[in-house]
Amino acid sequence: MTFLATGRVNYRARIERGVLLGERYSFSRQILCFYRHVAHFQKELYERLPKIWGKQPIAPLGGNLRSELDASILLKPFSEFLALIESEGPDPLSAQSRQLRVLGEKDRTEVLREFWSTGLLASASAEPLQEFLPRAFLLPYAEFLVSALLPPVLPMTVCRCPRCNSLPLLGVLRPEGDGGKRFLQCSFCSQEWEFRRILCAHCGEEQEQKLPVYVAEQFPQIRVECCETCKHFLRTIDLTKDGNAVPMVDDLAAIPLTLWTEENGYSRIQRNVLST
Question: Sign of the CA dihedral 269, 270, 275, 276?
């Protein structure tokens, strides 16, 4: 079982892909413009974390990514993030940021710790507006911590992240030989682990006739992998079709696919950070 080794996160690639897709798809231009503000902040925080962290060990106690959150080093950056979203975000998110920013440190700490311990463990377990702020802010922190962990031993295909037990956000098909190897990408810490090609990532259905795959002409690099047993779907970014795709960003741009799946009665295993 393959678990992709963690390297340095390429936020520049995410930002540049957001610019390209915003130019390509007019319907996603506004939301990708907002995403670029978020990604720039995430990049800066990710690059600042080694200095903020200091000389203490990075790897979480016992290899548990969701061990107790050290919120003390995050409160100042979190306030900066809230100010950014208040300034650049759409009105509902701006109002949510303003409301949280005027609260005391104790309240902001509780928001971060609660998401760190329980966020993204269930499908649509929180209201998207409330979830966005801690989720978007803590992503680079989670990616930073994961970089210090050794790859886990995976004896079998698993539907949840071996690092943090979160639900998958995406599938990713990476070129291998004459075809592609399927991975799942975690919604919480962005890690990828190998997953069987013909298997529902939600309920484990393995009968191929119950696992239809749809591809829209507008998004040839995105597969919508559905399950007729549990009526959930997983978007898979096919890097054998477009090697320049950045899974997380290509997913954000695919707004029409969200509308199509909703109209056809499918639910996403886990929504992306902007619910697109």
Answer: negative
